[in-house]
Structure of Phospho-2-dehydro-3-deoxyheptonate aldolase:
Amino acid sequence: MVRVSTDTTGLTAAPGAAIDWPDLPAKQQPSYDPAELAHVLSVLGTYPPLVFAGEADLLRERMAAVAAGRAFTLQGGDCAETLADVTGPNIRDRIKTILQMAVVLTYGAGTPIVKVGRMAGQFAKPRSRDDETRGGVTLPAYRGDMVNGFEFTPEARRHDADRLLRAYHASSATLNLVRGFTSGGFADLRSVHAWNKGFIQGPAQKRYEQMAHQIDRAVRFLEASGVADAEEMRRVEFFSAHEALVLDYERPMVRRDHRTGLLYDTASHFVWVGERTRDLDGAHIDFVSRVQNPVGVKLGPTADRDTVLALMDKIDPERTPGRLTFITRMGADQIRDVLPALLTSLGEEAHRVSWVCDPMHGNTFTSPSGHKTRRFEDVVEEVRGFFAAHAEAGTHPGGIHVELTGNDVTECVGGVHPVDLDDLGLRYETLCDPRLNHQQSLELAFVVAEMLERGVH
Ligand SMILES: O=C[C@H](O)[C@H](O)COP(=O)(O)O
Ligand SMILES: C=C(OP(=O)(O)O)C(=O)O
Ligand SMILES: [Mn+2]
């Protein structure tokens, strides 16, 4: 399969720059109409990159600090972004939530936090089943707004190639606002109080408010002492990430960096391959092995030493610092058995990548009311097991990767301001997996800050 690539400035590159993607098995792919798809691909390939290669390089440097134990990464956002939810308030509240969590982690643990949003591209979902049956009617499963619609009708569930373009535009609009917020003064460290406004004021928000007071005092002290750099305080580094799942989206977004001739997935700063598509000889691992972005691979409880080493050899043969992150999602009940043994079996190699904990995907269950949910306590327990495993193996716990929203939803149960099983129907808005709400997200940040500061065993 041959596609024409453009360079990272969006200009069509010389013919020699065309990318010859090998024809490898690719799981979880949509079946778009071929004629519609051909048209869409030719359009997508001419659209401007969403990120610049130099930004991806910067994130790789930041992730190198994570791998070395000098920084911690916070990765968070929706399980599935939706086109309808690309609104100013939704994006603002998700950004505020991540900024607040990052402040809690930075201030609480004194560690630099590499902030990454699961956003501006997280529009496709791998599914356990291809179909969904309701009341005797079977239709294709919902696979994310990049593929089909959630509504349970044959029209909505049809795989529609035009959605690739809509996902691109939605990602572009999202990233534009994120860049505005993070560089235009909204994320100014002197606004830590303001980020807490507009949210329901539960125990975690109150605790945050106290911390914000202390930060204010510290910032005023630094300003008065003349050592605070006002420009530096105005800006925050924030990166985008999503699962590189639909190759008909990711491949046309691959561009050759005009500075070096190297390939980058310009749809996002960071992309990862999911648990269901990480086959060593599959198209997804091949895809990430060809781009220079920092990349991740999810590892479930069945991942073994040989697989992990083979993934490293394939994706990161040079062991480039910051290049590869393993995002473990073992489940609270398995992580303490599985992860220490895996890390130990890797020996020195375990120090050459970053390790991030996804405490969500191994802890999903269905409530009696039929909602897919997770217990906040299981999420915390998996993170605790993650820290303990790294302490045991002598490796660095590098970060957390969570499904969250700034909205006051009732999708995960538990927390200090608890959502009960009976509450799930009140505000269950996700179209795929349950997310931590604002309160639960902040609470998690406080708990993780303590683990970072004290270490957990
Ligand atoms: O986000 C992850 C997966 O897409 C999701 O957990 C799959 O859910 P399913 O088992 O309902 O298909
Ligand atoms: C699909 C996801 O996770 P996993 O691949 O770990 O199941 C996800 O992160 O939404
Ligand atoms: Mn998910």
Observations:
- Residues 2-9+27-454 form a domain with the TIM Barrel fold (CATH 3.20.20.70).
- The two ends are 50 Å apart (CA to CA).
- The longest helix spans residues 88-109.
- The chain has 13 helices and 17 strands.
